[in-house]
What does this fold into?
Amino acid sequence: MLYNYKPYPQLKDFMRLRFTFWLLTLMTLSFHSNGSEASSPLYIGIDADFSAVAVDGGVAIKRGVELAVDEINKKGGLLGRPVNIILKDHRGNPARGIHNIKQFATNSDLIAVIGGVHTPVALAELESIHQLNLLYLVPWAAGTQVIDNQYAPNNVFRVSVRDAEAGKVLIQHAASRGIERVALVLERTGWGRSNEASLTLAAADMGITITTIRWINWQQKKFEEDISAIKSDKAEAIILIANAPEGAVVVNELAAQNLTALPVISHWGIASGNFIERLNVEPDLLNLSVLQTFHFDYQKHAKAQQLLEAYHSKYGLVDPLAIHAVTGIAHAYDLVNMLALAVTKAGSTTVDALRNSLEDLGSFEGVIKTYDPAFTPTQHDALMAKDYFMASFDKKGNLVVLENQ
Amino acid sequence: MQFQPPPLRKRLLTSMLPRLFGLILIVALMLFAFAFFFAKQQIETVQQQSIEGLKQDLSFIVNDTTRQLSDLASNDIIINSLVDFEQRDNYLPMFFRSLKLTQTRNVEFALYDFSGEMVIQKNWSHSISEKLDTAWQQRTLGASLSFSSITQNGVLFSVPVLLGGAAEGALVMYVESLQALLAPYPRLTNQIVTEENGLVLFSSDPEFIVPGTPFSDVDTMGYVLQDSRYQNLILYSIKPIGNALKGLYWLALLMLAIIVGIVLVNFHMIRTTALLAENTLSALYKDIVNRIKDTDSQEPVIVEEARELANIRSAFDTLISDLAEMSLSNEQFSNVIDSMGDMLLVVDENHRVMLSNKRFDAFCDDQYGEREGTVKYILNKLINKSAGELKHFSIEDGLEKHIKWTNTPLEDANHKIKGAIFVGVDYSNQRSLESHVQILNHAMDEATVSIVIADIKRTGQPIIYVNNAFNRLTGYNKEDIIGRNCRFMQGEGTDSNTTALIRSAIANREPIETTILNYRKDGVSFYNKLILTPVKSDGEVTHYIGFQQDVTQQRQAERYLQDAKQKAEESAHMKSGFLASMSHEIRTPIHGISGVLQLLSNSPLNDEQKHYLSLANFSIQGLLHIVNDILDFSKIEAGQLQIDDQPFDLLETLESLQSQYAILCQEKGLRLHFHFNLQGFHVVIGDSVRFRQILSNLIGNAVKFTEKGEIDVTTTLEHTNNDKLRLTCAVKDSGIGIAKDKQAGIFDVFTQEDLSTTRKFGGTGLGLSISKQLCELMDGEIRLESEKGEGSTFTFNIMLKEGDDSLVTPQRSKTHSHNTATHKRKILIVEDNDINQVIVKQHLSAHKTLSAKSGIEALEALKKMKVTFDLILMDCQMPDMDGFEATRRIRRGEAGERYVNAPIIALTANAMKGDREDCFNAGMNDYLSKPFDVQDLLEKVDYWADKSAVAKLQLS
It folds into this structure.
């Protein structure tokens, strides 16, 4: 049986979508001003890239939120009020992200903003988030500084990879394969720099030599000299911190220089966009492993199966392996469910109440794992190194869990 | 005074001049009108070109700037800086400082983010009007398209910085005024660019029209103006009128001069024409008058006159000349007669000579000057005949002259005969030629060789002459054959190649000599030796002469000789074939004996027995050597010996020969030296066995015939022109040598230097002959240099091909075989000969063996037996089913799956080349030639059994 592949919405479609949501927001706002407080909806905002470089990630986050919100609404909503979703597209552009946050802040019924894939956007938004006192839930952006910011109280909670931890996992993975010399390829953004720090630290701990650090710009098209340099530095593997377009440039250049056998140990950025479509080489020919936190073959418990069934009934029957950026779905799903529990526990939707409630949620059974607990007043990161695992691409370009984990 | 009509000249002038002037006036007016029209058009074209140029400049600035900005906007540094909020300040300012797009100074750049916030700028000193700001942001940030604007507010370009197909920011370039961008280089006309409201944005001559002022302020009187639009701009080209029409003044002056010139020239022409007509007519008139008066005295007046006048004059001249001819004298008549080649004599009724030409007079001088006598002689002989040939004796050359005379009556106007005209033609040369030809004809007619002449210029190339001998040869008469082509003598048995050859020779006009089968008139065939020779006339071949000779008997004799030779050769071949097969039959029992001896040597023996056994072994080796020689020789004779083309290690072969003969030489007290110059080639392609055979034969001979001293073997390799290798090998000994007169036959069969040598040294006497033949089979030769008592040097060379190391399969490790010698194998021996079976079995007594007598038995055994055999030894020639067929069946699985890949080693008494291929083709793995060496057998058995064991292990 052939699985039906649904193409991403084109930019134009998305603009139309955005317009519809605006219209909806306006309508509900006007409704709110007129009507009964009790049944007026609550809002969850999503601020992610739906049209530029990490569309897979954006769509996955949206679907995770939608699946959770569907369940919540089926159970009668939050505090008796239905929950609606507002989408805003930041296209990976921090300036747009800040703009979106400011827009969200004008909605008094908004309980939280779910962020997107890009660490640079999240980092740029932190100031506005805290100024405007919004609750910011991160299902993807992995930059350490996103959580370890200088704001107190800290309005940011994350169910995702934490670069400081990811660095350890990536370096450990290299060490477990007997690799002693690695080259780092990092995107020239806050995310890249966040990883540079954590990888350097982890490598020093594990006694692994970093032969060279190579930076790649967003939308950079050439990487020939850098790969040659990596080759001449005799690196035994590349650790890749980049999104899909730049990741594909790096891997394609490897293939062009007949270095497909060189292990590439990648952060999960390449799993957030159409990485496979950008490849000039069959994915299974690559020696590529990707950091992941969730996979239907890794999390096989009932909760994950329920999520898969819900996904199939809402978005059509798709091969579980072929669901793109599946981690985004799981993270967002768990985050929204935690938010719902926090709202219920707090009995309020104010940010301060919700923050306190999230920090004191207790044990929580999610699709990724049972969080025990997810957050504390000093720890806003729910997933740590032990929750990560490595996957690789199969012939069809689907992620498969690497064995021996 | 009588009225005189006006002269022709005056009339022509008065009638033509007024019309001419009128016509010139009209043409001049038209020319002026055209000139003015085209001048105006030209001015417009210049203006148009100028404006088009300006338009192109503007368009270039807009497009090029936009393109450059777009390139910049797609630079990943720019894109990255929009994403990299935190650290873009580290690299973006430097990147921006280095920006430079045009030569113009004061260009301002800025990078905006998606919301229209400026991120970074360069030289940005102006604030842009709000309207313009909105306009570019709407287009570039809103619609992701590039934007350009040229207004009084300045020139602005903006392009989107695209991420995923939509604008995430914009690059903006601004220049305060268009004047700064459009360089003031030389232009065809003055150029102005204004906005729609008429404000001047650019002026090519800022002193004449100041930029920034309204264009309506400019006084354009006295200027030609042309305008065009480019987007929101109006472009003007301005040129002063006076300047523009300057060219036209000169044109007018030039044309006036031309018209005046034309009038003058025309006036002159008309006048000249009139004058000419007048003069011609007057001259003609005077001329006629003069001629009538006196024909000869007046030279004709040379005037250029019209054709009509000339015709009149020529008709008049003809008239005068006809009159003159009427009185032409007949003196030329005698000149004509004298110039005749024939003799002419005219006599009257009374036989008096009326007329004779010079030729006749000279003839009379040659007849003793007897003119009268000669005339009388002629008249006497011919007066009543119309023609006749007379013989006259010439005193000049003492020969008789044959003159053919014709007699024609001389008649007057009334057909009355007034005398006779004799014309004499000298036929002397012709008569002498005729007699010459007659002699030749006779000679040809009577010649004993048949001669035929054909005219090849006529269609069908018919025969025009045959002699009597032809008649005797073919039986055809002249009547039968004249006019026909020679081809009719050909028939069924005639070789078409020969006829084609003849045809092509004739077509090429070449001589040919060939023998062809022809048929006589009575149908009997004969071999005709034909020599065809072309005959040339005036450099062109017109005829062929053929000489024919019956060579049938000669032919038959040749045929008998050829048949006899063939029969002799066949019988030699048969003899050799018989010898070859006999030798092969002899090998089988020898093998038996050899095998039994080898077995015997392994049994416990006392010293005496051992000595006898070594004698028997020595004898059997000698016998085998002789049989091998005879077999080789027979094979060579029967043409069955083939040269192998396999890669082999030359150095290794030489080294093994050296070690083989070193012992022998040591025993005899001889020194053996090997010298190589192999040019770096170790591995070559050729027949190693035959090379070894030749060289060991020569070394063996050297050892045999040398009592003391040394033997030098020198081997060299060299490249030949055709990419092959020539191996030259010289074996030099210090032995008894060979006398000069015996050297020539030394390579013949059964020849040693003399019979005593045979008695003393033994041998078959075939060795050198075989070596010679082998050398020749390998494109080489062998030769000898020797002095009796001084030693001999045998030198041979053969041709080899280049090989490389990878072609030679590595030698099987001998140590390996020793290691595994203790393994007990299960071996099936398939062999019909009982003795051989026993021998093989005994040799393999260390292993478990089972024997079968034919292929069928072997297949049965393999199928039925529970044990799995490790190896099969297969004889090739067996009754019922031979080894090849049995092997093929085993490979097909007829003996069960377990034997499909089992190792099979062929045992064969045939050492011929084809056998080896047959064995491998049938699917056998290896090959042992009988009589074989025990060590060989054991090694091969171990090697293949091991290999199969390893394969089985891998499978499981």
Q: What stands out?
A: Chain B has 27 helices and 31 strands. Residues 447-550 of chain B form a domain with the Beta-Lactamase fold (CATH 3.30.450.20). Confidence is low (pLDDT under 50) at residues 812-821 of chain B. The CA atoms of residues 184 and 204 of chain B lie 6 Å apart.
